[in-house]
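Researcher: Let's try something more involved. This one mixes different molecule types, so please make sure each is placed in the same coordinate frame as the others.
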Amino acid sequence: MNPNYLDFEQPIAELEAKIEELRLVGDDTEINITDELAKLLGKSRSLTESIFSNLSAWQISQLSRHPKRPYTLDYLNLMFDDFEEIHGDRHFSDDAAIVGGIARLEGRPVMVIGHQKGREVKEKVRRNFGMPRPEGYRKALRLMEMAERFHLPVLTFIDTPGAYPGIDAEERGQSEAIAFNLAKMSQLKTPIISTVVGEGGSGGALAIGVCDQLTMLQYSTYSVISPEGCASILWKSAERAPDAAKAMGITSGRLHELGLVDKVVPEPLGGAHRNPEALAMDLKKALIESLAHLDVLSIDELLDRRYKRLMSYGLTSE
Amino acid sequence: MSNWLDKIIPSLVRSENKRASVPEGLWKKCPKCEAVLYLPELEKNLNVCTKCEHHMRLAARQRLETFLDKGSFTELAAEVEPVDRLKFRDTKKYKDRLTAAQKATGEKDALVAMRGKLKSMPVVAVAFDFRFMGGSMGAVVGERFVRAVNVSLKEKIPLICFSASGGARMQEALISLMQMAKTSAALEKMRQAGIPYISVLTDPVYGGVSASLAMLGDLNIAEPKALVGFAGPRVIEQTVREKLPEGFQRAEFLLEHGQVDMIVSRLEMRDRLYSMLSMFMHRFAEPVSDVKPTVDADVVAVTEPKRAGEQQASTVEQGAAANS
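Model: All components are placed in one shared frame. Result:
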């Protein structure tokens, strides 16, 4: 099995391997394989299209955690200029599971904050698999308050399995750190735009996700608990995760239908990791649009609108 | 002598028989010290074991009705009822789970809100019912909580929340997650308005409830031995693969780590909360301890100094100013 492909992508992987082989052969011999190659490439494309046109919630959940998927620092690289990372919560330590700092988006200064996962084993551990501890959330809030002081909009990138469930995190007040961010973000006097770029894992995601505009990438997910967690509680078996993923409606499409998400940015064929550059350009455009939308509001209007949005969550006719 | 014994023995036997025929529901074993407790007495003692002071769980309505002054309370936001927007179904339908929980508890959802009086001071109090789907927070809990906050804000009276919850309600998926943001945002308005909010953490408080409204009190107060945390102990154990420290996530552990302000016994809750709230609200201390409110309880009170930035004295009641 090719580890760069998920299990449901294996037919594509096999075809791609064949194409690669043919290319190598073509380099060595005089035989003209251009036609054959073009045929196979076309086949690969239509196979990918057909597999991706009908993904289940569980498959999307796997895509959202794809090891090759772009992370916050990749987007910072691709979309922003002059990024200066700002470290630490000024109390305890610097949590590498959340990164943040000032940068320019198309020339405009902004504050960027996001979860960060690691790529290689060592880096994964250092980033704690993108699971922040309280000091991570406190760093994030410190940066948001800095943004408020200097009238910089806040752009957050959400990609976490959840807040870290560890002894030290509990001792230092994981719950309080999350709760305090939720409260403070609701009244932060500057626009906040959040984008779910990978896994939107519960309170650990929301703690940097209270916003004026919520965007999701097509194959990202956002949920109150992981499909595995939900399945092991309600179905008493983590293997029922595909059922849980479906029941919870964790995909961008479903959440957009429910009115919980404002905007969905489509991903390249095969997912964000197949063409990060193209996706970054689309996302950048979407973010600039969202900012322009919020720019016309005064701070009072902005806060009023944000509060009303928050209060509308879950409202039903009585 | 034998005469006296003869008289007494049959009556003892009779009472033994009587006891045997008493329905089982009248007795409860304390899970901590295993003493067999007489239910009416246990209830009178607010479900605190009369032998070892172990705090057992308390239903939301019972909590509020015993916390607030007798006859002083009216329910708030009772009209908000659950709707299954996602048509969620696991091994059972969410709708059926709701119906079962409603039948078992007599409540429509896991939060009960009331406006009432605490030693004649007007307050809003809300309580989670752990029996109702583990006290989980969905749209109804969030909305009822916010409406309770709004009454506090409008009338400038303190809010007290007794939480007991496993966290966000999975069956409402992202809608339940958003209740964390919703309730926290409402509480931020309380903070800006300078109206006290006391969060009382009762066994147990976890997940989305602990990571939102329950940890945002001006005072976070825990009941003795209450389990409070973000992640459950089993999840943590599986993640870190080491044994959890003694007393991990108990109220006493939280106090030691600076996560709660104090631990207060349920039997002293009324006295202590009144005492602290009366200071925040600049009311006079109540001269006597927790006596049942008398007829003129309504006219205790209020020549309170105005607090900074406030337009009116906050809680002048009709016919008040008795002790000026």
